[in-house]
Amino acid sequence: MLCPGCSAEMTNIDLEARQGSTLAIDLCATCKAIWFDHFEALQMAPAATLRVFGIITEQSNAASTALPGVLRCPRCRSRLLHTHDIQRNTPFRYWRCDAGHGRLMTFLDFLRQKDFVRPLSTQQLQELRQNVQTINCSNCGAAIDLAKDSVCRHCGSAMSMLDLQQMTRTIAQLQAAAAGQRPAEPSATEPSERVAPADLDALILAIQARDRGDDAGRSLITTGLVMLGDLLRKRF
Ligand SMILES: [Zn+2]
Ligand SMILES: [Zn+2]
Ligand SMILES: [Zn+2]
């Protein structure tokens, strides 16, 4: 299947669905986007959700290409409709085929839909400013000068970050569910390796380490994803 964004062949990935069936998603690493047939995103079993997280964290270092303004359905070529939705308090977007063939969602919006992306609070923004000068927009990749701006000048996105603690908790629950156990209740006696580092402090350290090297151009979210990828690899 050809990517609606860049027209390259997408990578087809078979995942476990609920009730023991399988579902296939198509992924484009260049556009950092996933095509779901019908409403497959809703049918994903815990193991499948984990696998998609793993794939997203592996791809998080690659530069992404902005999607073009007009996207066409890979099945029927009709124009995909840009759709805004909201998950709890987090808005996310996707492009859907009006004939019901499926929808295209960016990695970032997949994470937003799973409620793992939070806007920065005023206090967090202050803390970030004191430690980091520029950051790349998680949405479009443009550089944001933190001394002057708190939203992206290019696309207007607010600064946001991965909620690493929430993700770590959810990953633990998904792993338990995938292994057929009852989801673990969060508890104070969890092994220390399960506890994510204090979110923003850890991110700032990672960004500062990056700025000293030549691996620039990361956003708060890609930095978070790299940390999360390390965590996932340790746990599998
Ligand atoms: Zn593409
Ligand atoms: Zn279609
Ligand atoms: Zn932007």
Describe the protein's architecture and organization:
The protein has 7 helices and 10 strands. The chain is of the alpha+beta class. The chain has 2 domains: 97 residues, no CATH class; 119 residues, no CATH class. The strands form 3 sheets. The protein has a 6-stranded antiparallel β-sheet with strand order 1-2-3-6-5-4. Strands 7-10 form a two-stranded antiparallel sheet. Strands 8-9 form a two-stranded antiparallel sheet. A hairpin with a 5-residue loop joins β1 and β2. 32% of the residues are buried. About 5% of the residues have low confidence. The site of one zinc ion (ZN) has 7 residues, from loops. The site of one zinc ion has 7 residues, from loops.
Helical content (DSSP H or I, runs of 4+): 25-40%
| Proportion of residues in extended strands | 15-25%
Give start-end ranges of low-pLDDT stretches.
Answer: 187-197
Treating each run of at least 4 consecutive H or I residues as one helix, how many helices? 7
- Total individual domains: 2
The overall pLDDT average reads 80
Note the gap between the termini.
30 Å
Widest beta sheet: strand line-up: 1-2-3-6-5-4
Output the structural class.
Answer: alpha+beta
Rg calculated over all Cα atoms: 18 Å
**Main sheet: strands, sense, barrel:** 6 strands, antiparallel
Shape: globular
The ordered string of helix (H) and strand (E) elements is: EEEHHEEEHEHEEEHHH
Give the distinct bound molecules.
Answer: zinc ion
